[in-house]
Design brief:
alpha/beta, TIM Barrel, 2 domains, six-stranded parallel β-sheet, three-stranded parallel β-sheet
């Protein structure tokens, strides 16, 4: 994941993005790009509570609707994908410091207890028993993972392939990877289930729950009819399980376009988060494409980025 720095205006809010805050034992099965150490997370949250103005996603969207510019140092905290450690580790830390956050849920994956595909892929590569891998579609690619750099090249090739794939195609590719690499372990983790999410809402009412599509599909890759169906299924499942409408959305992999903005508005969505070159959010920001950034491990960068008047960044990576 790479960052390019640029100057930033003196006003605007910042949305921070997190995924997993797992213990070291569980983190062994999570792509490191999706994980932050719990102690570092506590350090970051403690700093935010002391030194920054933390608002909810509802307060952010209300400020935009009211044509209100937010001061530098205003931060929204967000999480993606429904890792169980969001309830067990992150939520108690946030509650201790009195800070709100939003969690975006891929509803079909919650329904089925399905791990993010990137963690399944990471675990298969990390615990592999064999080094030969052949991918035949869309074009043949063969890898000898015992050769220097080949495991990284193969991993990135497959990650890019799966990024735009349907859920069915992802399952087909992952099953083939498991068959060929014979990993010693499968990813043992499971996302939050709906009972746990209802518990989370009750115990931690400042944790807003939002939408992250149904199957974590790239909504720009398969046509508007497919995207509309993904969004509507996500909304229906969310309402069925939680008894309320989800009104905040996160684009899978941050991928979006003006057609999706219009579609989400028509579906009653109030905000949607993505990524962008200028990460300052103000009254001119498009609520259907609000940029956010992955929280860095460096506390020096963390202080600078959340300060809001020093730098912006463009984020090359996925959510």
């Amino acid at each position: 994941m790479g960052y390019a720095l640029s100057t930033l205006s003196a006003s605007g809010a910042l949305i921070l993005m997190y995924h997993s805050i797992a213990s070291a034992e569980d983190a062994a099965f999570i792509d490191p790009r999706n994980h932050l150490d719990p102690d570092l997370f506590e350090t970051q949250i403690s700093f935010l509570a002391r030194s920054r103005r933390i608002i909810s996603i509802d307060e952010l969207t209300a400020a935009i609707a009211a044509d209100e510019n937010l001061p530098p140092g205003t931060v929204v905290i967000s999480f993606d994908d429904g890792y169980r450690d969001n309830l067990e580790i992150a939520a108690p830390i946030l509650q201790k410091h009195g800070l709100p956050a939003v969690l975006y849920l891929p509803t079909a994956m919650i329904d089925d207890g399905e791990n993010p595909w990137v963690d399944e892929l990471y675990t298969a590569f990390r615990t592999r028993g064999k080094d030969r891998l052949e991918v035949l579609k869309p074009t043949p690619h063969r890898f000898d993972l015992s050769q220097k750099g080949e495991d990284r090249r193969a991993y990135l090739f497959l990650a890019n392939l799966l990024l735009g794939a349907t859920r069915e195609r992802r399952r087909e590719v992952l099953d083939e990877v498991h068959a060929q690499l014979a990993p010693r372990s499968k990813c043992p983790l499971r996302p939050l289930n709906w009972d746990e999410l209802r518990e989370m809402r009750e115990r931690f009412p400042s944790f807003t729950l939002g939408l992250h599509s149904d199957t974590h599909l790239d909504l720009t890759a398969h046509g508007l009819d497919v995207a509309r169906d993904e969004i509507r299924r996500c909304k229906a499942t969310f309402r069925r399980e939680l008894g309320q409408d989800g009104v905040h959305f996160a684009y899978p992999y941050n991928r979006n376009n003006p057609q999706l903005w219009d579609l989400l508005r028509a579906e009653g969505i109030k905000s949607a988060v993505s990524s962008g070159n200028d990460c300052a959010i103000n009254c001119d920001s498009n609520p259907m494409s609000l940029p956010r950034v992955a929280s860095p491990e460096s506390m020096t960068l963390f202080r600078l980025w959340t300060q809001g008047s020093t730098i912006a960044l463009s984020l090359a990576g996925s959510s």
